[in-house]
Amino acid sequence: MELLNTNLTIIHNIEKQKIISSLINAKKNLHNLGIAYIDWRLDNVGIDEYGNVKIYDFDCSGIFDVINNKWIIKPLLLNNFKKTLNKNLLYPIDIDNYLFNEEIIKKMIN
Questions:
Q1: Phi and psi of 78, rounded to 5°?
Q2: According to the CATH classification, is domain 8-109 in 1.10.510.10?
């Protein structure tokens, strides 16, 4: 168990760019491992005492074949994943990228 700062609303623009960059790198690493995180929300992002960005709550994630970009284990059909059903997004990486942009990028920039 680790104590994280989860109040990202008080973070300055320079720090926001660092957080976004760290999350993009984490997303790329997860995709390379065949994991679509899906539950991208600011509520699932924290910063430890050393300034490291952490994501948690992987219970909505899905597993996909990296080569074919097809689901092996689909994510739970919860809110974030449901948002993508009428968007004509067929591939796990596209779904995860869409949710990342909607739930992290747009909300961190505003």
A1: -105, -175
A2: yes
